Amino acid sequence: MKLQLLFFSVLQDITGTAELAWISESGAQVKDLLNSLYERWPKLREWDTSLLVAINQTYVKREAFLTDNAEVAIMPPVQGG
């Protein structure tokens, strides 16, 4: 299935991009996607415990299933000022 990944803040520095087309296996969950991303960019794993993930602009847990053509936003913790 096709996904559109969005990376924010310091995660853009780690991945070298703000947006990326990604192919994932059918039936994959967010946690499967994250594990694949950690293989490609090992430094992302350092953020594992604090990453926020949204599918189509709705925050989800790691057990959420991915859907074809979904927009998946991966963000570091949100901080106020």
Fold and architecture overview:
The chain has 81 residues and is an alpha+beta fold. It has helices spanning 10-15, 30-40; strands at residues 2-7, 19-23, 52-55, 58-59, 70-75. It has a five-stranded mixed beta sheet with strand order 2-1-5-3-4. The radius of gyration is 12 Å and the shape is globular. The chain starts with a strand and ends in a 6-residue tail after the last strand. The model has no long low-confidence stretch (mean pLDDT 95).
Please give the largest β-sheet: 5 strands, mixed
Total strand count, please? 5
> What is the strand content?
25-35%
Rg from Cα? 12 Å
What are the low-pLDDT stretches, counting only 5+ consecutive residues below 50? none
Helix content: 10-25%
Identify the overall geometry. globular
Q: Based on helices, strands and strand pairing, what is the structural class?
A: alpha+beta
Distance between the termini: 38 Å
Treating each run of at least 4 consecutive H or I residues as one helix, how many helices?
Answer: 2
Largest beta sheet: strand ordering: 2-1-5-3-4
Helices and strands, in order, run as: EHEHEEE
Average per-residue pLDDT, rounded, comes to 95
